[in-house]
Amino acid sequence: ARPRRVILVSALPQYLVEPLGMEAARTTNEAYQRALSGRRGRGTYVIPHGCTTKILQ
């Protein structure tokens, strides 16, 4: 499995989010800019209401 980079838009501080394997961003724009940096054309997914989205594999 390839590692995934998950950026959570939240007011939670980074030190609470990091142990869960995610990065914290304060705004959607900040998260989007971070997600695009260094991607070189690879896919980026934005999942609104991610806490209620069911992901099927």
Description of the structure:
InterPro entries: LarA-like_C. This protein has helices at 14-17, 28-36; strands spanning 6-9, 22-25. With 57 residues, the protein is of the alpha+beta class. It has a two-stranded parallel ribbon with strand order 1-2. The protein is globular, with a radius of gyration of 12 Å. The chain starts with 5 loop residues before the first strand and ends in a 21-residue tail after the last helix. The model has no long low-confidence stretch (mean pLDDT 85).
Measured between the Cα atoms of the first and last residue, the distance is 13 Å
Rounded average pLDDT: 85
Q: Spans with pLDDT under 50 lasting ≥5 residues?
A: none
- The radius of gyration is 12 Å
Helix content: 10-25%
The tally of structural domains comes to: 1
- Number of alpha- plus pi-helical segments: 2
Widest β-sheet, arrangement of strands: 1-2
What pattern of helices and strands is seen along the backbone?
EHEH
Q: Please count the beta strands (DSSP E, at least 2 residues each).
A: 2
